Amino acid sequence: MDNLYNQIEMILSSVEKPARYVGGELGAQKPSWDDEAVRWLMIYPDTYEVGLPNQGLQILYEIINEREAGHAERAYAPWVDMEAAMREAKIPLFSLENFAPAAAFDVIAFNLAAELVYTNVINLIDLAGLPIYAADRVDGMPLMIAGGHCTYNPEPLALFLDVVVLGDGEEVIGEIHDLLLAAGREGLSRSETLERLSHIEGVYVPSLYERREDGRVLPIDSAKTPAIIEKRTIADLGAWPYPKQQLVPLMEVVHDRLNVEVFRGCTRGCRFCQAGMITRPVRERPAEQVIDMVKKGIERTGYDELTLTSLSTADFSDIEPTVSAIVDDEDHGGRVSVSLPSLRVDAFTVGTAAKIQQVKRTGLTFAPEGGTWRMRKVINKLISDEDLFGAVDAAFSQGWRRIKLYFLIGLPTETDEDVLGIAELGRRCVEIGRKYNHNVTITASVGGFVPKPQTPFQWYGMNTAEELQRKVRLLRDDARGSRGLTIRWHDPAASVAEGIASKGDRRLAPVLEAVWRDGGTFQEWSERFELDRWLLALDDAGLSVDDICHSDRGQLDPLPWDHLSAGLHPDFLWGEWQDSIAEQGLEDCRWTPCYDCGACTNFGLEHVVASAVPPAGGSQGTGQGLELSAVPVSLSATSS
Amino acid sequence: MNELPEDRHYLRLRHDKIGPIRFTSQRDIARVLERLLRRVRLPVAWSEGFSPHPLLSFSLALPTGAESLAEYVDIRLEQPYEDLKGLVADLTEMAPAGMDFHSAGAWQGSRGSLQEQVTSCTWEMEVVGMSTTAIAERLAAVVNAPALIVSRNRKGKMVTDDIRPAILNLEAATEIPGRPSSQGTTAWIRAELETKERGIRPQELITALDADLLLVRPRRQAQWMEQVEGRCEPLTREGQLPANDVTQGPGGQS
User: Which residues of B touch A246 (CB under 8 A)?
Assistant: First the structure.
């Protein structure tokens, strides 16, 4: 194997942030190249700073390196300046552990966490010196495998990838690894290997399926491959205490702190939320294991900050005692600060946050998502106005000065009144804050809604860029002059590109290729994004942006991802879509009877939740609050 | 935290920065060090106020991409720390590859800050782009010249400067014992450069020498401070602190 370090070293002096390209993290492993092994190159297709903290990649990196004949290294997308220097010096994509060329690996595995990285995936395959289309790759070249949330509609990348894996990776990656090890020993060809892989549950081999004229994706040979590929789910998170050796980078990255996952899955049932639909059921990690992972992690890494991660950490059954045990641990000298991402919107949660953020009370973030109660019933984010005001009152009264609120615009059934409701809520929150401090600020951050596959809104045609822009202007004009209220928004054009990549099918391959060839990498970076590139490429391919993402689809219309399943019954999703339009909410099934969405029953699973009763505080999803008048929440600041 | 300046306890550490870790910035190293100090449970003193931070102060920032055999950090402690040998060993074991710790020196009372006291640095620089003979001629010319004028753009205005006074020593070498060339090159420049007044950095020197010259791997060999007895290092690899530097308190070394 070539070690490319000497060549790489020569170009590093001329690029921005060269520490991105030298590895050397605490926890990095350096597998040797001597032995017979299946070698994985795991890639997060974005910059090092964004990709390094990704916990999914770190978990699989450890699992493979622990396994018999396992060998895993990592790479991230080199920034534009580094890519140019690499291409000029004829240096291919390389790994950060052994500085080995990507093409020397057996598997290149991509984590697809966001649709706008698709052109980076193509670019990285090319930078590895390999043909970008799967059909052009031959025996002896690495297999391109992808996992992550975007694989619930991988069709836009179907012609570039060899293998797609649905669901939790912990178990299935070992099965794939063992199969590849055996295939290597038996000397199987690429196509024989792929066919064998397609028999593993959760594994989708796109080349064994074809898109029919009517849009359906069917097996080429239905005797050999299943018509529907079901996702994989690990039953017990406690059996997988990973990462055991979280990577600590030499340079600063996003989420630069210890991360411990407290549960996976969420059944709050927000209809816009793909993560909440595809990761069911809820599987909590035992509190003692959380505390143990935190303790060991703090000692090993030297971090003094940690995040308890999940889709809604305040819902963790033992959140209070767990947080107290961490904060009060004498061993950490009282200097460890804990943050809870995605705070639930209620005063009780703010009380918990106050306990653990004794030192820095800079800002808090809540996500009511909808500006009116009607809108929030449509999306099933059942936060009453009183919940929000209670949370905001609690936060301002306990010393916070800045609160950020996240909203979506372009939601189904949305009217201008709903949009203006965002500014109105913002003003009411400022008013509450001014009881405590004259300089409070509320920032309402507004994103254009992109409907995602495997959610109740998968049939919904998203707003056009112009319509989103109009709503942003409406809101901005209304908020102008409102003291203490700031409106921020994401580029509606980028939301449209995300919509195209989320809902497109295989015909998108030439479009992605054209955007990439035109220099369109790092599309989630606003300075590198232009929607026109995408629209021109669509035009050239004879495709219409309206058909792909702006038109509603009917119950019987084939969807590009119908052959892939997150376990959810199509009837459940359609029923939720209808209830949504009828402004009908749905309770959280952790604490109320099962409504059989399919995520448990299809796989013989159930929730792993320590507490049989909903958490205290707030009305959302707890069986209360579907009618405003019935919400028994006071505006008192004391919450604990 | 409220003790008198002469009662305060300090510690100075010396470490390397060799190999790929040279591509990290000074700020990165500061963060790495803060985590290391927490891992070895050193009783670092913290500032008070709205956003408390550990009381560390560094020597002259090493440019990103440069190696070093002589990096220093001063740490204020909440209480004295006895086992300096053990500390140095623990830090080396836990530190990233290429960041070996060599010595620690402790004292009580105040010393001048590293940044103020260091007056010059010795550098060894691997270069490519010119033959060794051509480099030697060019260096001799610079040493014998009364001035070396450089111009640079400063806020839209061209300013010229004479950097010759900042070059205290300059010589070429075809090899440096114990330092194999990384890129098959054979040209090296050894320089001692002033850090005070108009101090210069290795890249600036190389650019001023010749536009064809490419700096491959600069390495800071030593940092120097002036004492009555002559120049000395802020802390030797053996752990010796300068004798006459403590301005208040009983002083003392370990």
Answer: none
